[in-house]
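Aim 2 progress update. The chain analyzed this quarter is reproduced below.
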Amino acid sequence: MTVILQHAIDQLRAHARRDLQRFYSPNHYLGRDYAPIADFELTRPLLRAPATNELSAREVSAATALKDLAIYENRYRKIWDDAKPVRDTSKRNIAELSETENREIYTLLEMFCCSALSYAKVIGAPYLIKAFEQAVPTVQATPVIETVPNDHAETKLVQGVAAGKHAEEPWLVVNLNDPEPKQPWYTPARYFARILVIDDSTLLSQRDELASKVIHSLENVGIYKRGGKKSFNPATIKKALTKINLG
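Predicted structure tokens:
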């Protein structure tokens, strides 16, 4: 992680915690100022209905950014710790992780940077806006080279170009295992649903709550109903998740 990005993360954490001080005393962080678990314990209850109704728009944005940061940092540390036996007993580069591990870390970092940028814009912090607009993931998945029949080569090439085009907006990349999206917003809705389930697997059996959280994620990246102003209806979101494997 670059020094600039790490500094931006520290600044964002400080701003967000100040915005959420009315919910928790400073003692909540005593001795663990940079512990992801402290952020997670703070924000997760706040973002659950009906607690969310007590937050201002700025506080919701702050809590979302902190929660996504905590998910990213917690998961990264767990993956790193789990990979330690492999790193210590092989000739692999010490910073190298598996393809699956890289992909998961990359996805979670992208999600955090997105919510961090939204919060930076809410508080009007030019330094943070610039940092998260230019944020580079700490890890990237190695491109997978597939061997395909000649008659499918052009299709694969087009898909590869599309994936590259949306490298900074992964929610726009179509999952080839999903049914064809009937609406353009189906793809980002499915993407965010999968990310949310990674955080909380109980959402698999709570489709109404999952749909509500997906709506919030869509709004964070500027995706609304036709017209670009009104939020989606949860029932509409659930249509996009029909016959979808979320994990």
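Residues 138-167 have pLDDT under 50 and may be disordered. The first helix runs from residue 3 to 19. These observations will guide the mutagenesis experiments scheduled for the next reporting period.
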